[in-house]
Amino acid sequence: MSLRLKIVLALTLLAAGATAAIGIVSYTSTKHELEETVDKSLDEAARNLQERPSLGDPDGDDDDPPGRPGHDRPRSFEQVLYQVIDVNGVVQRSGQYDELPVGDADLAVAASTDPNASARFDVTIDGESYRMLTVKAENGAVQLARSLAESQKSVERILRSTLV
Fold first, then answer.
1. How far apart are alpha carbons 77 and 54 in whole angstroms?
2. In the predicted model, what is the mean pLDDT of the chain?
């Protein structure tokens, strides 16, 4: 093999390696940034709920009309599912027709005496990935969830373009 061919091959491999490295860094950075954005939206929704504890039942008399879950949702809740659970995990109020899953971490937050108790994790609901935040509420906890589908599509596009 001639020296010229060796140099061409070395430069080609170097360029391919640099492209792959840039793609991996871009993929990782974008994924992290999108996860942070979802987490921030859940944090904001939790703050809104704490400011509006009667969300879904404006007058607080527990007579929220059936069939109208979430009619009192703030704009920041357009992409956020939520429900209020008691210390036993029983759903007290929901912002959508389907209930969110209640797990051990949610029950621990609901039963906690720490007013700042919270848990953050990923769940799958009907085959779709969601980021979930559970925060302590007065008589239990509030669960908030946001779909990760849009974020996953974005990072998959970056991954595909890097591999091509």
1. 15
2. 84
